[in-house]
Amino acid sequence: SLRSGRNLLGRGILQVPHKIRLFLSLIGLSHETVTVDLSKGEHREPWFLAINPEACVPVIDDDGTVLHDSAAILVYLAEKYADGNWLPKEALTAAMVIRWLVFEQGMMRYGLARGRSISLNNPIRLAGTGSLDECHRIGTDALDLLEAQLSQTTWLVGNDHPTIADVACYPYSLLAPDAGLSLEAYPAIMEWFGNIKTLPGYRPM
Predict the structure, then answer these.
(1) Is the peptide bond before 123 cis (omega within 30 degrees of 0)?
(2) CATH of span 91-197
């Protein structure tokens, strides 16, 4: 378990912290959660900046090992606490998982997450500028790529077992309608949502 550590997460429906909540639940790892209220600026208070100078969530403290960035946290948890299916060792399969983690941090974040932030008039905006139209263009491209892959395979990497790639990409795509993007034209993505929701330990947003 994350023994004396803490799993520091944002308050409310935030896609990035939910990836970590979901994965901890899927692998059955006990942990303590400390909620950080971003709307009150708690992520910029000295105690939090001492943990993460980048002033963002999520952060984990695993018995003194502190990590931030959701992709890094997922890799760490998969390597240390999960079975090998979540981050396979075979070189090509592992590379494909990492490819989707990069995709999630790029197109999905700047299209879907930023679009959601703008649409909901969230005062805590992602860094950078960009119009809602630009977010819709990038977000649509991201959903098209997801749909193309999931039309061929059950999971983002293969048919046998989900990986941390699925965990990483799930929250942004699930909340795409909040960004103003309908999912009606994406049947493979909708089926993928259903597959994820039936996993033992699944935790809803």
Answers:
(1) no
(2) 1.20.1050.10
Distance between CA atoms of 59 and 69, rounded to whole angstroms? Answer: 7
The whole-angstrom separation of Cα 91 and Cα 94 is 5
pLDDT tens by residue, 151-164: 999 999 999 999 99
- 169 and 109 Cβ atoms separated by less than 8 Å: no
Q: Is the pTM of this model over 0.85?
A: yes
Compute the distance between CA of residue 157 and CA of residue 153 in angstroms, rounded to an integer. 7
The token pair at 23 is 């994965």
Mean pLDDT of the chain: 87
Q: Does pLDDT of 78 surpass 70?
A: yes
* 7-81: CATH number: 3.40.30.10
Instruction: Read off the pLDDT of residues 163-197 as tens digits, 9 standing for 90 and up.
Output: 999 999 999 999 999 999 999 999 999 999 999 99
| The two structure tokens encoding residue 4 | 């004396």
Domain boundaries, the chain: 7-81, 91-197
